[in-house]
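job 3f2a | input accepted
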Amino acid sequence: MDKIKWGVLSTAKISRKNVIPAAKNCEFAVIHGISSRNIKVAENVSRELDIPNAYASYDDLLSDTEIQAVYIPLPNHMHVEWIHKCLDAGMHVLCEKPIALVSEQILDIRDKAENLELKVGEAFMVRTSQQWIKVHDLIQHGAIGELKTIHGFFSYFNNDPGNIRNVVEYGGGALWDIGCYPVMQSRFIFNEEPVKVFALSERDPEFLIDRLFTGLLSFPSGTATFTVSTQLIPYQRMQFFGTKGMLELVIPFNPPTEGPCVINLHKGDKKGPADEIEIPSSNQYTDQMDAFSKAILENTQVPVPLANSYLNTKVIEALFESEKSGESVNI
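job 3f2a | predicted structure (331 res):
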């Protein structure tokens, strides 16, 4: 069976700990090489993770004509530059979120990719996650009646001044790093776009990044609220409230790869504990890379196309505008 040969642009933690190990179980993808600005680092990682090729620079990887697609886990502010370089090298691109910090730059990437007949997608692994697909299916088929509001929470603790997520100029902060998830998934579950947003935040006095961010999204069919933080106890949850029940995703964003995921279904006409719906064990990073690779092989749409990324980024920009002005912002 044909497999897409992938190159990985940098030895970032998410690639070493999540994406590359997950790719070993892919049906349609194989990691062909990894690059670093330090050849020793690239060689060490390639040996550790059994990757055939190591490159002394990102440009060296892009010069390997055997590579068909590139995964980019670089810092946020470097995404746009290296997406363009990958496209110039004739390679498809799966880039970590956020794909760009300015929505208009996504349109430039879209136009270039279309002209070159190459695929570019944003690495929102939750969009290929089996538990999210199940939640979407349950709500679409009326498991909780009419969906009216979504509540989300996602946090972790990181006050390291040397961490890239604490550099505001590089796209650091809670909204860009993790707030993008409840925004993306609320749009997915409602299956429509928000028309108005409102935001409140608390910024770190030293780093200036948003360390605590709360957003309210107003959709034609209801509302979604979320709070995210980079300086709170680690916790995550998503809840979906309808006219006849409520669904709760217990570990919505980084579920276990061993053992089932759990969805709690609370029915309005039933007393007692919630019904537990178990989703068989799977790896959302494996699912993501396989889905993207299959889209290349079959020339179909990637899991998160640029049109979706553009709309998600427009919502995030509006939330930042509301944070600054203290007023709601129409989209």
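job 3f2a | The chain has a mean pLDDT of 96.
job 3f2a | closed
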